Amino acid sequence: VVSKNKSIFINIERSVKDVLKKTKMFTYKGNDLTVQACETLINYIYLNDVRGIGGKNILVLGSGNIGFKISQKLVESGGNVDMYRRNQKILDKTVFTINALLPKATMAKARKIKSLSLNLNKYDLIIGTTNGEPLINKEHIKKLKKELVIIDVGKGILKKEALDLAINKN
pTM of the predicted model, to two decimals? Predict the structure, then answer.
C-alpha cells in the first residue's frame, strides 16, 4: 500500500493496528488459508485409509506459492508428489527446495515432470494450483482411474469439455 502523504510503501497490517487501538486483530494470508483448507480436505478424503496420504501418487499442477506449500505438506505426510510447472527453471528450484528441507526419515520425495502426459492414470490425487490456464483435457479424463480425486484450488485446471466428461463419469 502506498501512503497518502509519502511516496513510500507501508505495511497495511501495521497501519490497521495503529488505527484500531482497542481491537484485537488476527491476520491471515489468503494463500495460507487455501493451503490449510486443501490439506484439511485431503486428510478428510483419506480419513478411513490407514495410510492416509502415505504412499499415494499425487500430481500438483502449478508450483507457485500455493502449489509449493501444498506439495511440501503432502511429501512430509508421505505422499509421492510429482510437480508440473511451465517454467522448468523455477520448478527445478522448487523441487530441490522441498527435498532439501525434508526430515531425514521421510521416504517420500517431490519430483518434477517435464510435460503433462495424456496418461495420468497412475495418480490417486491431482491438485490444480495454476493461474487459470486449463491443463487437463478430455483425453486426460478418458484415461483417469475411477477412484481419482481432483481438487482445483486455482482458477480452473479442467477444460470445459473435460469438466463435463468428468462430471458424467462421476
Answer: 0.85
